[in-house]
Structure formats: structure tokens, C-alpha cells
Specification:
formyl-coa transferase, domain 3; 13 strands; alpha/beta; about 400 residues; Rossmann fold
Length: about 400
């Protein structure tokens, strides 16, 4: 029994931020129904390759993107543009604790599925809307995309090659961080609303925006600007305040060295046979190393290129110098620590046979996270939910299917 096994969630969201939020709640035990468009489904069902493969190594219809964000959910297909479909959603909402949606501002109101409409059938409903720019402000009706928000929210201004690097350019993150973080914040907000409801009996509306979230997760960088009025610069893989705290080349790739104090710097250069650098008055203390980084870093790069990644990792771990490799995903899942933590899961799936998933990082001792259901096939649970939740008989379900409502 998960910590949220008493909570029912109706997930009207698509693509990433909303489904990520709903999956977090599902992993914690919530009963989540994912509502999808008949025949088409969530957009991410079509964002492939890659696809999950069956036991014979052949591609199934299940995209890796959809798989990543939709486990522990039941899928029901409903055309919410039709009155009969809207009636199904209202009845399911009446039985739910939480509704999650990420439609354009005002779009669900014309279907009678907005918060004000649904709280009439469920007064203590918790309703979470996720959009690019929120429900208010001059940008409210603009479509929101993670890439654009990473740029608008300041993230790309500090991400990418250092400003003085030839042909330097800003870069987005390799994953959709604005979407992911918004989904995480939405999960937290929903849990707070559940606690408030349990104490007071009141539901509430939650307004989540990708842009708000992106600015919030700028954290100390945003705070540095607000405190100083100085616009932060791009530093690439280096730190503006610590040297060396960056990637360095080796004989066969790159490593990360995070030398946080003077003793660690001495141990680092001593491991590379260059102990004299720690005695050099230009580099003996971190403020001096920051000041003279342009002279120091080329010397360190000459040193680190003399050994392989593995040799450096072994040497520096023995010396107590914080360091690490830059792993590709094959190396990630082959790592002994990752394997010990059982981050890769295999679960049964109706079309793939066995499906590989990334485990939730949440480790609870009393109410552990578990994968109860693999990511569903499109509409896999439609008939079951209409029968068990709404008490529709087979004839009524068939009629809805013939009309294209489900």
C-alpha cells in the first residue's frame, strides 16, 4: 500500500510536465486514470523511434518517450469535445481527489471541464493546471515549450561554452528541465493541497507555469543577480568561484575534478606529479587560482592528458580528491553503484513482453514505491473503468465506441 493509495487522480495532461507529475503520484500509490484521445492518444505515443522491443527484438508501438512518464496508470480514451465524453469526465472527476490538466488557458472551460465547473460536482476537488506561462499575465495564452522557456527563463544564458571561448554559444539542457521541474513542483503542490484538504475539507486550484518554475530553479544564480545587479555569465563546465572545479581532458576522454579547498588542490597536483603547482604563489590559495585560472588551467590540462580516465579516477579516489567520470548511458547502467541501487527495472508488458524502466529515486522505508502497472497501451482500461467506476454495461460501452466517444 503506497503512501497515496487513498488518492484518486484524473490525469487529463499530455506530453511531459503533467504526465511526469501524475507518474510521481502514481509511484507513491495514487490510483491514476490517464485520459487520452481515441485512436491518437498522448502525443508522445508517436515520438519515436526508439520504441520498446519485444522478445524477438522487434519494435512494438510503445515509444521510449511515453514509457518514461506513464507507468502505474490506467489508460482510458475519451473524446472530450463531445457531450457524452464530457459527461464521462465529469463523472470520473466526481470520484477523484485530484485533476491534472495542461490544456491552453481557457480551453477546458468551453467543455465544462474547468475548475469552476468540476468543483460543482466535487466541492473538495484539487485541480492542477500546468501551462507555459500561467493563468495570468500578458503571455498567459501563449503556447509554452520547454526549449523556449529555458531561453526566456535565463537558463541558457548561463549554460554553454564560456563567454570567452571561440564561437561560444548558449545551450539548452540535454533533457527538458523546465517540464520536468514543473512536474516535480506540481507534485509537491498537489500533496500540500491534499494535506490542506484533509485538515479543512477544502479543495483548491493550483496554477503551475513552466516559466515561473524555470526562474525558480535558477536558485543561487538568480539570487546572485538580485543581490548584485550583475548579470551572470556562462562559464561552461567551470565554476566562477572555485578552481579547479571543472572538466579536464585525459588520454582517452574527460573527467570531472571538484577541488573544493587548498588541500584537495595539493593532493590533485601531487597525484599528477606536479606538486610544485601547489607551492606556486600564484596558485597556493583558491582566490589566487580563480584570479590566475587562464595560466593555471593549461598547465593542469597538460598534466591530466598524461593518464587515462580510469587511471585518474583511481588515483584521485585514493587521494581523497572529489572526481568522477562523464558517463554515457551505457556506462551509467553498467555502473556498480547504479546496479546496486537497482535503478534499472524490468516489468511485464502486454506487447513488449518485458519492458525496461528507470526506477523512481524515492526510497521510503514504510510505504515504498513500487511499479504496480507498466505504461498502459492506448485505451487499455477503457471498458474496465467505464464498467467498474461508472457502472456502464457492455451495450452502453459498445455504443460509445461506435460513436467514437471512446
Amino acid at each position: 500500500m503506497g503512501a497515496l493509495s487513498h488518492i484518486r487522480v484524473l490525469d487529463l495532461s499530455r506530453v511531459l510536465a503533467g504526465p511526469w507529475c501524475a507518474q510521481n503520484l502514481a509511484d507513491l500509490g495514487a490510483d491514476v486514470i490517464k485520459v487520452e484521445r481515441p485512436k491518437a492518444g498522448d502525443d508522445t505515443r508517436h515520438w519515436g523511434p526508439p520504441f520498446a522491443r519485444d522478445a524477438q527484438g522487434k519494435d512494438t508501438a510503445e515509444t521510449a518517450y511515453f514509457i518514461a512518464i506513464n507507468r502505474n496508470k490506467q489508460s482510458i480514451t475519451v473524446d472530450i469535445s463531445q457531450p457524452e465524453g464530457q459527461d464521462i469526465i465529469r463523472k470520473l472527476a466526481a470520484q477523484s481527489d485530484v485533476v491534472i490538466e495542461n490544456y491552453k488557458v481557457g480551453q477546458l472551460k468551453k467543455f465544462g471541464l474547468d475548475y469552476d465547473s468540476l468543483k460543482q460536482v466535487k466541492p473538495d476537488l484539487i485541480y492542477c493546471s500546468i501551462t507555459g506561462f500561467g493563468q495570468t499575465g500578458p503571455y498567459a495564452r501563449r503556447p509554452g515549450y520547454d526549449f523556449i522557456v529555458q531561453g526566456m527563463g535565463g537558463f541558457m544564458s548561463v549554460t554553454g561554452e564560456a563567454e570567452d571561448f571561440p564561437d561560444a554559444s548558449p545551450q539548452k539542457a540535454g533533457v527538458a528541465i523546465a517540464d520536468i521541474f514543473t512536474g516535480m513542483y506540481a507534485s509537491t503542490a498537489i500533496l500540500a493541497a491534499v494535506v490542506h484538504r484533509d485538515r479543512t475539507g477544502e479543495g483548491q486550484y493550483i496554477d503551475m507555469a513552466l516559466l515561473d518554475t524555470q526562474i525558480a530553479v535558477m536558485a543561487n544564480v538568480a539570487s546572485a543577480y538580485l543581490c548584485s545587479d550583475e548579470i551572470p555569465l556562462r562559464w561552461g563546465n567551470a565554476s566562477p568561484a572555485i578552481v579547479p572545479y571543472q572538466t579536464l581532458p585525459t588520454a582517452d576522454g574527460w573527467i570531472i575534478v571538484a577541488s573544493g579547498n587548498n588541500d584537495q588542490f595539493r593532493d590533485f597536483v601531487s597525484a599528477g606529479g606536479q606538486a610544485h603547482l601547489a607551492d606556486n604563489p600564484l596558485y597556493s590559495a583558491n582566490p589566487l587560482r580563480v584570479k590566475h585560472r587562464k595560466q593555471l588551467i593549461p598547465l593542469l590540462e597538460v598534466m591530466t592528458r598524461q593518464k587515462t580516465k580510469a587511471e585518474w579516477i583511481t588515483l584521485l579516489e585514493q587521494a581523497g580528491v572529489p572526481c568522477g567520470p562523464i558517463n554515457n548511458l551505457k556506462e551509467v547502467f553498467e555502473n556498480e553503484q547504479v546496479q546496486a541501487r537497482e535503478i534499472e527495472l524490468q516489468v511485464p508488458h502486454p506487447t513488449a513482453g518485458k519492458m525496461k524502466l528507470v526506477a523512481s529515486p524515492m526510497r521510503l522505508s514504510k510505504t515504498p514505491v513500487e511499479v504496480r502497472m507498466p505504461p498502459p497501451t492506448l485505451g487499455q482500461h477503457t471498458a474496465e473503468i467505464l464498467r467498474d467506476r461508472l457502472q456502464l454495461d457492455s451495450e452502453a460501452v459498445d455504443q460509445l465506441r461506435q460513436k467514437g466517444i471512446i
